[in-house]
């Protein structure tokens, strides 16, 4: 998913991300604000998985 799509649908994705990646905090999601690389980094950090899997 490219950054423009993520930013455009951020409010919709926010709930889906919280459901799928429950270890992400509300602060994490608030700081992401549609930035894909930040999201990937936080998923890696919280779940201990490789960038490819995140």
From TrEMBL:
Residues 4-54 form the CsbD-like domain. InterPro entries: CsbD, UPF0337_stress_rsp, YjbJ, YjbJ_sf. Pfam families: CsbD. SUPFAM superfamilies: Hypothetical protein YjbJ. Gene3D superfamilies: YjbJ (1.10.1470.10). Belongs to the UPF0337 (CsbD) family. This is CsbD family protein.
């Amino acid at each position: 998913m490219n950054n423009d799509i993520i930013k455009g649908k951020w409010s919709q994705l926010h709930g889906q991300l919280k459901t799928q990646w429950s270890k992400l905090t509300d602060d994490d999601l608030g700081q992401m604000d549609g930035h894909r690389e930040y999201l990937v980094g936080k998923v890696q950090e919280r779940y201990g998985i490789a960038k490819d899997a995140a």
